[in-house]
Design goal:
Radius of gyration: 25 Å
Distance between the termini: 28 Å
Number of strands: 5
Order of helices and strands: HHHHEEEHHEE
Strand content: 5-15%
Largest sheet: 5 strands, mixed
Strand order of the largest sheet: 1-2-3-4-5
Amino acid sequence: MSELTVREEKFYKKWEEKRKNKWLYVFLNGTVYWGLFMGVSLFLIHRGFKIENMHLSELFERILIFGIAGIPIGLIQFNQLEKTYLNKDNAEIIAGIKKLKAGKVWKYENLIITNLDKKTLVVRNKLFWFDESDDLNEKLNECFDTIVNDYMRINKAAEFEKFSKNYSVRVQVYEVLDNEMPLIDRVIKS
């Protein structure tokens, strides 16, 4: 991934948690923060900030109307932030596609992707190693699943999905990069 500014890093870290509770975000930002503020503000302005002109039922009515109207506003905000979050890697993915088309190796996060013979993409781990006390089969399967999940996340990007649709995909798991033979070598898409 390309280097992020401190502000971008904070945003992505916070949004990673906030995006898990979509409807809570929509409710808080649309109904509570926007709707409540607008309802009370317009009520006070409409009544000239004079207590004798204010009626509690009218205040509740305005809060309810603006609270309901805030739901689409909160949803629009959520979708904009989600789009920003999901597109954070687009530039790097596009650069990676160019490398793969040129026959070069693309290193992305913990993956190394190679365009083998213009028909097959080989996806392998950048770095894994095992302790002797670890159950090798369990660790291998865990590494394989991690590689597949990371590849599938990249493949969700429209540009990469379009690029990779005509390729078969092989996943290889190596203990360390110096090893000649992969511990796992499976085709996940043919």
